[in-house]
Design brief:
Blueprint (H helix, E strand, L loop, with lengths): L6 E6 L3 E3 L5 E4 L10 E5 L9 E10 L6 E6 L15 E5 L4 E4 L4 E3 L9 E7 L4 E6 L2 E8 L6 E6 L5 E5 L15
Antiparallel strand pairs: 1-4, 2-3, 3-14, 4-13, 5-10, 5-14, 6-7, 6-13, 7-8, 8-9, 10-11, 11-12
């Protein structure tokens, strides 16, 4: 089973474009309504046998309203709904700092994030928890009882929004703190 290495160009909403590297995503909509959400999944699910899986998302441009969600989801999840809003989907959102767990109701979790920030997501299959990082700092456990076949995903609804993912092809901001996993 292969690890996630890029975004899946055939598994995204119409509001998103992806550059030739398969790592940078741009939001192409106006972001004025809930109907203009764009989500993309990675090219492969995270194999649970890897025990720990970590990826980072650089916020290149927060866009007009800062609505960006970073998380993970199952294959069947609707790509026109933000990460965390539906069953089989979880996400940390930059515009409100909330963590969403299979519901449109978020719970306070971490700081807001915006242009220039790097948000990391660690899925720990050893103890079935998930934590996020912001600019290399661990924000604490966001979710417990992790299970299922999960794909990294990102959602945007922010005019001009742009992100770039690092699935491990370059050093992580959190790398210096890896012993804290």
């Amino acid at each position: 089973m292969d690890l996630p290495t890029a975004w899946n160009l055939d598994d995204k909403s119409t509001y998103l474009s992806v550059d030739s590297s398969g790592l940078r995503v741009n939001y192409e909509g106006l972001g004025k309504s809930q109907k203009e959400i764009g989500v993309i999944r990675a090219n492969n699910p995270i194999p649970p046998y890897c025990k720990l899986f970590y990826f980072e998302v650089d916020i290149i441009d927060e866009g007009k309203n800062k609505i960006i969600g970073i998380g993970f989801c199952e294959k069947e999840v609707d790509l026109n709904r933000m990460p965390g809003w539906d069953d089989g989907s979880w996400g940390y959102h930059g515009d409100d700092g909330n963590f969403y767990c299979c519901s449109g109701s978020g719970n306070p979790y971490g700081p807001l994030f915006s242009t220039g920030d790097t948000i990391g997501c660690c899925l720990n299959f050893k103890n079935n928890t998930v934590f996020y990082t912001k600019n290399g700092i661990n924000l604490g456990i966001a979710f417990r009882n992790l299970k299922g076949s999960l794909y990294p995903c990102v959602g945007l609804r922010s005019q001009g929004g742009s992100i770039e993912v690092n699935f491990g092809s370059r050093e992580f901001k959190f790398a210096g703190n890896a012993e804290k996993l």
